[in-house]
Amino acid sequence: MRTLVAAGAALLISLPLAACSAEDTLVIHSENGDHSFKVEVVDTPETRAKGLMYVQELADDAGMLFDFKESRPVSFWMMNTYIPLDMLFIEADGTVLNIHSNARPHDRTSIPSDGPVQYVLEIPGGVATKLGIEAGDTVEHERIAQ
């Protein structure tokens, strides 16, 4: 399965990501305030497979929102990803279920959600800790039902 995902991602590298996604504002409501991010939304198997692979830099207020269109356990890995990432696993109602901080570039270790989620937000590594974002915080975005 991983080989198939990697092969699909390799085929997609020539496609502009903007053609497969939309950029929106996402807000995380935490105990110490609200934190806004400009995110690209990916919601097809092809765009989710590519994710942030091959991206060389990401602004502190930027990220990618993965929409799986249903709640289910998910897992990620960092193959062909060049920058460290924080992964926020988000339930259908916008509650952050768990956070994996500073995922290591090129690591093939599986990074799972702690249960069913509909969304995953990837932001630059270390930003969640820096901003005080924690499990239990809520996420506001036009795709997320509140």
From TrEMBL:
Presence of the UniProt keyword Signal in the record: yes
Recorded superkingdom: Bacteria
Alphabetized UniProt keyword annotations: Signal
Keyword Ubl conjugation applies: no
One Pfam assignment: DUF192
Signal peptide as annotated in the record: 1-21
Annotated protein name in UniProt: DUF192 domain-containing protein
